[in-house]
Amino acid sequence: QVQLVESGGGLVQSGGSLRLSCVVSRGTFSSYNIHWFRQAPGKEREFVAVIMWNGGRTEYANSVKGRFTISRDNAKNTLYLQMNSLKPEDTAVYYCAASSRYYTSGSGNAISYWGQGTQVTVSS
Question: Among residues 1, 122, 124, which one has the least CA distance to residue 64?
């Protein structure tokens, strides 16, 4: 069973930066496409970004394009999400998710492997 553990969340002021990490264990990290989703209070979970298993392709939600960067280090079994120019509307719990499929939208309901989430709060 693949396990994912996120870290790096916290409280930051508007315009600030955070870097989230997701460590994957008990699975072949390099064989999975890894996604970031987020869920704000009272809202549905939404797609944020994805990176292909070999790092060769990435996609972003329009709301984060140009501000967030997804990357992976297959040697360390770790995924990153660098978040710059943060806005209050980025406040949410952020989840990483692993799949053999490559999703670029939606809520990720078909994805089997999820982390527990890390809270990101952006104050205005």
Answer: 122
